[in-house]
Amino acid sequence: MNKAEKYQGIIPAFYACYGEDGKVSKQRTRALARHMADKGVKGLYVCGSSGECIYLSKKERKNILETVMEEVGGKLTVIAHVACNNTEDSRKLAAHAEALGVDAIAAIPPIYFHLPDHAVAQYWNDISAAAPNTDFIIYNIPQLAGTRLTVPLYRKMLENPKVVGVKNSSEATQDIQMFKDAGGEGHVVFNGPDEQLVSGLAIGADGGIGGTYGVMPELYLAIYEAVKRGDMARAQAIQYEACRIIYAMCACKGNMYAVIKKILELREGLALGGVRRPLADLAEEDMPRVQECARMIGEAIGKCR
Length: 305
Fold this sequence. Notes:
Number of strands: 8
Strand content: 5-15%
């Protein structure tokens, strides 16, 4: 599989899987990775925002990635998010990911302090240098990280030959076009906001990485195929269904990933645990809405078959 092909398509953001004791579960992690592979997705994005990375230890993140690679390494494209809020820990995770043979590593910028562009570039390049034989993907999510990837900063990063693209989760769809234009031929840009997959693909995204892909991959796979065929009316209709479900999941008192994990238990028989505090777990009052979301997903999947 060449570089362009392995990054095109639907890549769910992988969820952290916990046992009843709240610790990361190898068995449940393996089961989720196998489940995603069986759904026909292109790859997995491991230990990113949806994987609750900022609330996990380095050891836990290593264990999750090791388990995913044992199960689907060489079968799916695996992108490991390795950023921590300091350079040295990020470099250790990057080196570990390369040793496991991942396809790419990715990193958000450092959070909290608003660093100048040259410091952000140094941070990313230091991480990349710890995995010198592995592709590097910049994760742009300014609404959470507090730092925005600008075109001048991206051009600076493109001086590093291991930088192959951007996971763009900014809410301005045109950013995809700007990064594609700056990167040129051979560079990839992933659509990040799940609610914007159709528009992201239409403006030039190579594929999508998303936090709700894992709970309803059938919908996003159908969107991707419809756009590739030029059937924009079908893609738009399925996107509407996905957005309605996202809004409904976000309306719960518990965190959206707690909702997603419960839906996967209800619909797929996958017990993945709750979420890591301080994320809010499900409240008892959430269950009717969770069950309704599960019903909506089943109905939407039935429509797009």
